[in-house]
Structure formats: C-alpha cells, structure tokens
Recover the amino acids of this structure.
C-alpha cells in the first residue's frame, strides 16, 4: 500500500503539503491506474506491478488526521506495517531531495503523528524535501503555499525520483532500494 499524504480540496491542490498526493498521482499515471474509489476515508486505486496488487491511497481526512484512513485500510487489507509506504513532504530537506527510511520519529509532521496514533509506526518513509520557510513566513504559510517558479523544477525532479524509488523498492526490496535511490554523501 503506497500512501501519499496531503489535504483534499481544490484550494490545497498544488501546495507543498500535497507533495504526497502529487507523487501518488505521478505514480498512478506511470503505472496506468486511473480508477479511484472512495474507501475508508480515502481515495484508493489498485494496480498490478510485477504480479503483485499495489494499492495507491490518498487519505481524504486532511493531513493532521491521515491515520484515520491509513490504519483501517492497513488492517482491512491485512498488511504488515513494512508493506505500507508513506510519501510526504519534509521541511528539513532541500526542495526535491528524496530520503527513504525504514523507521524513525514523526519529525514533527502532524500527518505522521496521526498515523502513529492509529497503530502504524514501522512503515517505509519516502520524504521529499520542500525546504524551510522564509524568515517572515510561518510553517503553516509555507506548507500551504505552492512552489515558486524558481524551485518548481527541483521539486518535479524530486517527485520523478520518488516514483522511480518506490518502483525500485517494490522490485528490489527496501534495503537494496534505499542503497540505490537515497542520495549518496559526497566524499571530501
């Protein structure tokens, strides 16, 4: 199950906080999923990938209540926590930077806090950087604003990298996928 976090509604469509939705939409287009159904407070599409059924999920609960969709879907489909991939925005990464992790804290992200509170803590994390707010901006203003034209190409590259990484992790396994798709540290 691949879950993109975001906020439903037209007014949030292109905001930084909808990074997860945008990534899952790009993955759906890449994999040929075009039929979304409303299930347990989420939009869900099913696609076949290498003989496996993959669920693409966009919670319709607003970001801070994402777990209300993720937890019940995970239990309904009898998925183990490591079979759940969560894609979301991260202010601590530069715009477009991808980071894959098998575990970790909520990092102050309210969507992740909600997923933890709904019984899922050991999921695979695909974090895509949205950068830090400008000095005069609040965090809320930052995450609910669209990307500016100067950083939009970097963000779009990050979404494309996340799509490739998700497919790579499905194909190779998460450990090999992390080795291949996480950015390499530069040696001095």
């Amino acid at each position: 199950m691949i879950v993109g976090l975001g906020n439903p509604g037209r007014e949030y469509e292109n905001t930084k906080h909808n990074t997860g939705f945008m990534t899952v939409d790009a993955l759906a287009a890449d994999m040929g999923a075009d039929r979304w159904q409303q299930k347990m407070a989420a939009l869900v599409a099913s696609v076949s990938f290498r003989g496996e059924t993959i669920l693409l999920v966009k919670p319709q609960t607003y970001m801070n209540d994402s777990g209300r969709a993720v937890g019940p879907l995970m239990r309904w489909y009898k998925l183990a926590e490591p079979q759940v991939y969560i894609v979301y925005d991260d202010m601590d990464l530069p715009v477009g930077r991808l980071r894959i992790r098998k575990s970790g804290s909520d990092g102050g992200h309210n969507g992740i806090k909600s997923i933890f509170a709904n019984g899922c803590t050991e999921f695979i994390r695909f974090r895509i950087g949205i950068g830090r707010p400008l000095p005069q901006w609040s965090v809320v203003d930052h995450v609910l604003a669209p990307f500016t034209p100067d950083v939009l190409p970097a963000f779009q590259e990050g979404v494309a990298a996340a799509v490739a990484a998700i497919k790579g992790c499905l194909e190779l396994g998460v450990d090999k996928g992390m080795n291949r798709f996480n950015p390499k540290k530069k040696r001095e």
In short: The helical segments are 19-31, 67-76, 110-117, 139-143, 152-172, 174-181. DSSP finds six helices and seven strands in the chain.
